[in-house]
User: Fold these one by one.
Assistant:
Number 1:
Amino acid sequence: MKTDSIFYRLFQTFPSAFFELINLQASEANAYNFASVELKQTAFCIDGVFLPVADTSSQPIYFVEVQFQKDNEFYARLFSEIFLYLRLYAPTTDWRAVVIFPRRSLEPIQVQAYRVLLESKLVTRLYLNELGEVTEHSLGVGIIKLVVINKKETPLLARNLITKTRLEVVDQALKQKVLDLIETIVVYKLPLISRQELIKMFGLDNFDIKTTRIYEEVRDEVIEEVRDEVRQEQTLEVVIRLLRRRIGNLSQQLQDSISQLSTEQLENLAEALLDFSTEENLVAWLKDNSTQA
């Protein structure tokens, strides 16, 4: 699932959910505008920035980053983006960074260089699988939970959120946006869901999945992503097994580095490893190839 775009839409639709996530009042959202910021002349793009509106400039800027993949360089990139933003835009207000992980295991381990920042009030780290009771009361946070909940529980939570949306959201335009967002997440997570299941989930008498706003743009893309993920996982498993036969057990750090490779890179590694005899051969290959697209 392309979680960056999902969360961007989510925080655009429900900015209050962000502030509830960080234990502030939902009304705080009224003092902010939300946007994605691309930093000029660089390859950096910050997932989301909550900027105080003009008459509430005493409020801090909130930088939001969503990280759903293991990336040992994540914090290096995050703080580079933040400080480059501060240099380019020279804001006069305080700032905060909020990092959203689906679970703790995806957070980088080697963080010594950033420990002062991570342990300060400037940075908040959130783990979506540890969300508490707030998901039961907040529609926006409940939709966030929908992104990370397991596939088996997805239909029930989606139905509850759809009911909650119809009961609580009065504005018809906003209601449709929320239902579209729930639908998008469901189709991303369950690309093979049947027409009958969607009829039941959305409580409609006549519902054709192929006429939904996002079906055509999502289904083929998601199925291809699923195929790619399966192919990548299978290739990764084979490569790790072959490497163990050639050079013995691999350290966790090396396994993490290999898991970041694309399917094409893994296939190239499968060919190259036939010439490996030591761990140093693997380290050298990764150094030369892991950063290449």
Number 2:
Amino acid sequence: MAEYFTEQLFDGYVFHTNTRFEVKNSLITSLTPNSTPGDATTLEGLVMPAMVDVQVNGGGGVQFNEAPTLATLQQMANAYLSKGTGSLMPTLITDNINTMQQGADAIAQALQWNAGAIVGVHFEGPHLSIAKKGMHSAQVIRPLGEDEFALFTRKDVGKVMVTLAPETVSINDIKRLTEAGVIVSLGHSNASADECLAAFDAGATGATHLYNAMSQLTGRAPGLVGSALHRNNIYCGLIVDHQHVHPISAELAIRLKGDNRLMLVTDAMAPAASEADHFSYHGMKIYRKDNALKLDDGTLAGSILTLEEAIQNTHFDLNVALQSTLKMVTSTPASFLGLQSNIGILAPGAIANFTTLDKNLAVQQCWRNGIKEY
């Protein structure tokens, strides 16, 4: 058992002062605001839940698609821990069924290794729009088949999130997926507003990297952007690296969705949280240049963003209140995944994944399962 005291603590929802909390057997067992230090260990800076990223393709120099193994997931999780991210949804972008199955097998192993660090898997594709494919390989974009459905509904891989284009997947299949417990998010789509709203009605609950690779909001055609912003219950991921989304557009989305439904995500690739200068995908080498990852034609190919940088950009550059900023990387993504009792919060019964930040929102220390690992 360990006891800690901090003058400032964010629990995933609100701030507390002079808080004493206890950790036992990898869980938070008590949390008492307006307390005294007593014999507890005093932590400097702001204590908050370790952050939750629902879209991370690689990091620490490794890419999940290129090496769909337990070792890759461990390297990613350990690299991001130093940036304050404690829980990941490793993301496998569009690929062949064998690679997808290997990735799922690795996720199952990772859940046995650390179910608080690797909480499930995000399949971004392969059921996408060719017109909005971005960097995804057109050669393996395909309709939803029974092999994919069986993979998406495996019960040994934790939470399963699937990004799909609703114009390429039938409403009945979206219902089948959501009724089987799959979290469906719309993305890489050129769908009309009517198609998007029908998919939301069928159980889809998210929009993947809002604004990017999707039908835009115009006066007569709201597209996926407008549909996702309009529906109050839809969660939206947002990449705040000042590369993917203009700061004005990012601020508007946050203002419209609010911190209950807007999640900061990274869409990070192998070079993130590392010194690597490139990564590979389906024979393409994508290089890091000017703080971005781009194909030769200028198409953005994921990011090198970390959530540590995302909260700094959001709070300091977009002037979003700190409580809202931190909520969008903790309890809100956890709620989207249905894991708000376990991760992204500091409360009795939650996994003791927490971090400390300085006044510049830079990560100072990080604990995982109650053990200080950074």
Number 3:
Amino acid sequence: MTASVQGQPPLTVSIHTVPKHGRGESENEDSVTANEREGRFAISDGASTAARPEVWSRLLTEAYSTESLDPFNQAVQRELRRRWQQEVNRPDLPWFAQAKLAQGSAATFIGLQVFESGFDVAAIGDSCLLHLRDAEILLSAPLSNAEEFSRFPVLVRTLDETTPTQEIWAGGGQHQAGDVFLLATDAIAKYLLQNRVYLPLFCDAPITDDWFCDFVIEHRRLGLANDDTTICVVRT
């Protein structure tokens, strides 16, 4: 997929995802949405212990990329919570499903806005953006090394009135032609920060679904966590 962003050469975007081993695509709790025309890209990892996390993660990424909304804004979060409730609540749900929904949903989130020569990032949790130039990391956010990952990342939750400002990572910088932005959910982000030797594979050649699936399957045998694994590669 390619699209121009206000005066710069077209961005090239590719999205790839692999569910947990033994799970089907419909059970994938990651979401990613790309709006190449506006230069807005978002990725979110729904928390497996939460209720209907695949719905919540999708609502977050679509709001940012498709609707150009700030998912950390209190009014926007209120609307997204309403949409989540409307989508997941059904009158014929069994009692245990209703009890699960009452506990709410949660997800990590990272949004990237690419401008003519710069970019902005807003994130919470352990889904990460890697800004790469010649396969070297210029920025890794919101986490910068593998040791920062944990079992309990900060999350955007449906039960919270708003997300505390201090929990949001916000930043940005400049980019130039040939740079690569790699948005990645936690498993692949952590693995690539641990094994930077593989970064050129994500910079030097087009990535296909088959290639990425093979990469994930092979590297799960080498230490990549068995988790929903999703990337969005934006080439400038």
Number 4:
Amino acid sequence: MDRPIGGFRHQRFPFETLNLRMQVRSFLAETLKDRSPLRRADSWMGADPAFSRELGRRGWVGMTLPKRYGGQDASPWERYVVAEELLAAGAPVAAHWFADRQSGPLILRYGTETQRERYLPGICRGEIYFCIGMSEPNSGSDLASIRSRAVRDGDGWVLNGQKVWTTNAHIAHYMIGLFRTGDGANYQAHPRHAGLSQFLIDLKSPGVTIRPIVDLTGGRHFNEVYFDNVRLGPDALLGTEGKGWEQVTAELAFERSGPERFLSSIALLHTLIDAVGRRPDALQAREIGRLVARLNGLRQMSLAVTAELAAGKDPAWEASCVKDLGAVFEQELPEIAQAIFDEAPAIGGGSDHAQVLAALMQMAPSFSLRGGTREILRGIIARGLGLR
């Protein structure tokens, strides 16, 4: 085995984050006091630009970015506290979420100074939104098989191809997209991850078409994005040409390890506990206890990955564990809720619990798609454990 099984070590929040947590919790209690449980269930898939701008005004977007770009030079622990409180409260964070979580840090790490000055201040103000262009038709989470191409045209680039399952592309201003470049333009090239590069794409550019993929709830979170001879300037290349695989691998650790990977269904746990009340029977007490224990275990795993990221490490397999186990938890929660409490899901009426249960039942199938399918994640985990 190449490495010991021990990447998950117990972590405690630094004491100085306690005051920040209380500030965020107090702000959310007042701001979201009239927000229904059903709307809270949408959480990080629900967009509210005004709310995002208010978070930016308070310094709670782009927190870990340097102050010279509008950030707070905050630690990953401080950002985690804010993210956790927002998600636990069911706050509408979708507008700025990807820019805050991964696009900003990626631009800081790989971007030019011009790119940093152009994008990072707007991200920190909660005014510039990004989406992530990775998955493609017939590729899914197998990023090494993507076919969309970027070809040099003078000093710039021309993009052609298609991305799919692109969350919030319809509200985003920009995309960080992964494309084949140079000799790697043939998707059957060996190695398959050769010749991949990342680009900063203005989604209002001529030749970009965004089409919604409507989910079972009628929500428009996912999209198809088409590129038809989209012309980009030389400053659109993010990082180093041909190094996109290494860059996107680092990006995925941020995407797969955060609290959103196990808090997407937290509104249902809240309504379930309220519906059961203070006198649960033996089955209800046991199953709710198990759910809370699993939730705390996932949280601790996520904190361990945060510690690895804070130390400058690349915890790819640990992050994959959090994402895989988190999706299992989120998808099982509606089933367990139905098994221990006799109330049918309801759409357009009924109790808070019945409405949230119906919404989560319809959303849950997508939880094991976003951020990487279960099969891909378990392949990464197996390699990390030296099993393949």
